[in-house]
Amino acid sequence: MNTILTKSVLGIAGLAFAGGMAAGPLNHADTTPTTAALTPVAVVQADKPDAGKLIPHGVQGTQSRIDLNDEQTGNVKAIIAATKKAGLPERAAVVSIATSLQESKLENLGHLGDRNDHDSLGLFQQRPSSGWGTPEQITDPEYSTLAFLKGLKQVDGWQDMPLTDAAQTVQVSAYPDAYAQWEQQAADLVAQHWNN
């Protein structure tokens, strides 16, 4: 697919990607239609989550992004599946994935020895000594996500809070603003995998 058609399809779909592609119509000095521009394109994105629901407040601050391996992508899918199991909307998955990106880079971490933050484990760096569950439970992606979501549901108005405030209320991190940097990648991942 040529670049102009690709950008047009993405613009019609309402998706924004990092790296300079913006959703919406393209402005080009050369308005001569190409064969690809004349080809009708049917774009149906009804199954994709609404971007406004994924990032209702816009992103806060500079955004970070990492490339994911198969294990990390599997953990994204596990977080989304647990969110659906909990009966929560896509925004809860965005908060969960952004939190996990900050806490573990979406890796299901075991005990890290001297580098460990106390007894923190798993995708969300939850602590058995703080009542999150046993080490076996906390290192189970579904269990740890459901535990995080249980905490999130107890936060009054979490749906209307900036992501970093909702995540911090559950996690009680020493770096409360750090979650915000992962919001765009988390939203992109939810948009990509919610209906897979």
From TrEMBL:
<feature type="signal peptide">
    <location>
        <begin position="1"/>
        <end position="18"/>
    </location>
</feature>
<protein>
    <recommendedName>
        <fullName>Secreted protein</fullName>
    </recommendedName>
</protein>
<keyword id="KW-0732">Signal</keyword>
